[in-house]
Amino acid sequence: MRSGAIFDVAERRATIEELNQERMDPSFWDDPEHAKEVEQQIASEKEWVEAYEDLRERAENIETLQLLADEEGEDLEDEIFAEAEELEKRLERVELKSLLDDEDDHRNAIVTINPGAGGTESQDWADMLLRMYMRWAEEQGFDVEMLGHQPGEAAGIKSASINVTGEYAYGYLKGESGVHRLVRISPYDSDSRRHTSFASVFVYPEVDDSIEVDLSQGETDFQTFRSGGKGGQNVNKVATGVRLVWDGVLSNGEEVTVTAECTEERSQLQNRRRAQTMLKSRIYQRERQIKERKKEKREAQKKSIEWGSQIRSYVLHPYTMVNDHRTETKISNAEDVLDGNLEPFIQAYLTHGKKDVEAAPSP
After folding, report:
1. Which end of the chain is more exposed for a tag (fewer CB within 10 A), N or C?
2. Under CATH, domain 4-97 is a member of which superfamily?
């Protein structure tokens, strides 16, 4: 089975044994932070071993079914096909996960969507993207929480931010950052003309207590406003919405303004806490980009929402096609993609990035 090279089961089992020995030390919990890291590493290694055992068991089941069919003449073609199809799906999922080896890939993701110029048309397109990502996340078993949502005047959204919670959420979604272009016959055009719309997507890892983000290199302005979130009537009567604006200096000397807001919690305190996490996550992502640019691993993700800067095009007229311009992955079933089937693009992006790293000359 080709998954053997991915798992390196013998080494993983040796690592688990070594870490379990460390846990036996009476002073193990004297350093809670280190102990937590060890526990997380053990859990991660066990997941890989269990996944390998699951795949091996399924492969053995297929072999058994094939033997029964050959020796006893039973018609087991449907069962064999179903088992083989499920094995292939699980193997592809594991192979994709094996590409997520960057330091922040395992983290939760915060996804922010903003429409480009174009009024209602672009705002509707941004809302379509929001639905696409929420459906994808739910299909993958991730938890999705709305952090901020500003509806458009006629339709769509002016902006939205969601928190996608689950193992490797950021790793899977990081390649979605950029400008997304839609071509379709506008439902808002009485003459049924074809329109092109743009929206930007920014994905960044959610920071936790293990990441230090220094806000002292700038000033943070705390603002409140009336919210229109899901918290009931109270959010419309009092200023529960929170906006944090940080004016500061990044590690490369660049002066920036970073904004984060949360409107969806019931109280101002809850919104402030979530906005603080979002703010730190955005600053952390800026610092990540500085390091990435220095290493020439990838381009900066901040681009103008205009022609020529899009990472992916979604064409609904005069034909249907979704084309990722970075990997040239093309899917003709555009509706399926907009319903959340992003796996071909995620896999192509991660594989493409891995090839780039492997092909890059040594420094």
Report:
1. C
2. Release factor (1.20.58.410)
